[in-house]
Amino acid sequence: MYQGRTMFKIFRACKMRPTRMGFEPTRAEHNGLAVHRLNHSATSSCALPFRRLCTSVTFRLKMVDSQYYLPNDIGISALDCSEAFRLLSPQEKMYAHYLSRASWYGGLVVLLQTSPESANIFVLLQRIFRKQTPAQLEQVATAAGLSSEEYQAFLVYAAGLYANMGNYKSFGDTKFIPNLPKDKLKALVWASQAFQEQPAEMEALWDSCSCLLYSLENRQKQLGLGDKGITTYFSGNCCLEDAELAQKFLDSKKLSAYNTRLFKKEDGGKACYEVRLASAVQKDCAVDGECESCCGSFSFEDKEFTVKRGDYSRVMEKVCYYLEKARAYAANENQRKMLEEYTRSFTLGSIDAHKEGSRYWIKDKGPIVESYIGFIESYRDPFGSRGEFEGFVAVVNKAMSERFAKLVSSAEVLLPELPWPQEFEKDAFLKPDFTSLDVLTFAGSGIPAGINIPNYDDIRQTEGFKNVSLGNVLAVAYATQKEKLTFLEEGDKDLFIKWKGPSFEVQVGLHELLGHGSGKLFVQDDMGKFNFDQSKVINPETGEPVSSWYRGSETWDSKFSTIASSYEECRAECVGLYLCLNKQVLSIFGHEGQDADDVVYINWLSMVRAGLLGLEFYTPESKRWRQAHMQARFVILRVLLEAGEGLVGLEEVTGEDGKPDAQITLDRSKIPTVGKNAIHRFLCKLQVFKSTADVEGGRAFYDKYSTVSDTGAHNFLRLRETVLLRKEARKMFVQANTRISGDSVELVEYEGSAAGLIRSFTERFQDDAEQLESGLLELSKQDAPCWLIPGISN
Q1: Looking at 512, 568, 616, 773, which residue is catalytic?
Q2: 512 part of the active site
Q3: What is the pTM of this model?
């Protein structure tokens, strides 16, 4: 039996403890003028007597950290894909429709991958908004005593839950809670039509999630493993040592961790582990042509491991159903085979089948409708090996894709420009597809600007990959208002606004194609064969022959685990900075002369600024980074500051509002010399550690630059407070739906607002809403006892 109590007891226990919301913040504090780092004592019972003793203490206890709210004025934009969709043929529209359905249903898995309460909150919101639209509910809210600001805060929270597919930010992994008092939200739920029609069910649903919905106990403030935070990739009693042992077991069985979760239980005082594979099928025996099942019970290092199928089974069934529907409208045999293998993967829980599908996907060159689906990115697994589900469907933007095609054609000329020896580059550059896409559907916890996939090392090294840039995302995500531009000199702001978009387009292209697409991993396979000449390849950092490499089924993710994602993003970002100095690259993107110089300057300035903004995503209490890309950009800032010679300036100042501020400067004349040399040295070291599987050396090197302290030339801990004070919330996107009308497919669009985002989700699942919601609640309930850590406040 799993350690812990039932979910019902968990919530009862939570309800009996005073929560942070017992101390109501003022409106100014909600708007970001709060003292950061709420003291844990403010959420404990021992804090209560101080309210009577000292006004100043009371005021301090009221303060909350604004990073745990989504502001009412958060940017929300609609992703426009109407013209791209209109130009599709009827067959292509059907193909896109069914792939979108598969993606949206699969995206629901993220609720179960994020937190114990996410699925329940999702269902609560769906039931409320299925009965009443946001406009209809507003009158109910007013009658229930909510102000217009409080009702807007509720809508923003609901939109944030949908956009992040859970109650933790997809970019930064911090929890967000409703920016209105709990009793006001409860009053609104009770007054809703959904509650009036089913009071017992709605009250039970509220009781199942309302405590955790508002709780900001220390462990619940962020995602993490064990006592460091919340995760549902591991049961609550798992720690780093359990994750490491499980990875060794999976490697020994040649099983990927991408589609797994790990649950630990005690049996007679002995630790036993259950590895769950995401699959529609719940049978653990060999099925559908398998020679033997990967499932069963195994002894490993004096521990018992059981491998089982059936995780998220109800959701995976829906994904498979719609993939089968899409297959009937595939444009070619590669697409048909791809979807067949994806269906097999999600039916049986087989990553090998997903790899096979990915091989067909790579061969499907230049499709009009592009897509990818599965357990893809490992950013949010605290151990860095398990993939979050995502699925996207997009339409090719031919004009922009022509630029990327030219970049691909130039790759073999550009790769030798990178700072590592030829032996550390792949034996042959496998020219990938590189297309600019207008997103129709992106289901998961968030939408990136560009993607380089698949993530399987063995395929990327020898068979290839694809790159995509998401054009309609870039068009709205990085639009900037001058008054909201922080930490720059006034003279840089107009130039920044003019060239931020074009420079980021160059950076994304280089980052995805020649960043993630470059570099060799030295491997010795299971037969003892090496993919490099041991006698000749010299480590440029030591001058000695290479002495370490990947063995057997070891991969980049499994070896470098917790730092793998950020380290690789840092390497790719550095490639972008380094190669954007190349005039040929700039010419490909249409930039010549002074314009080209400005693009380079703003690209480097953007990276330096992003490094400072990255401090928002660092948690001092645990000394942990919560976002891979932002950690990478902070590391680059440190490297460029270390370069000296006046290349980068970072100064703490007082803003015009009298509050702490900071100012960044970059000497553009020194970018091609001091800056390039610094990135050259740093990038070479990153690649050498990666190629040679030198985990110890790579981790020590990367951790050195990731350190955030209050000593040295810059007090980064104090600068973090300034960044939090002046931060701007990340934008959210409203996506269209598709629906079949007769023999055709219609595009249903929504306004770029919290209400529009909410409506898009309630209409997205209306065909089988009740069945779907009950299935999600059942999946959530069956794992409820697994999330507590014995002896720790959860």
Answers
A1: 512
A2: yes
A3: 0.80
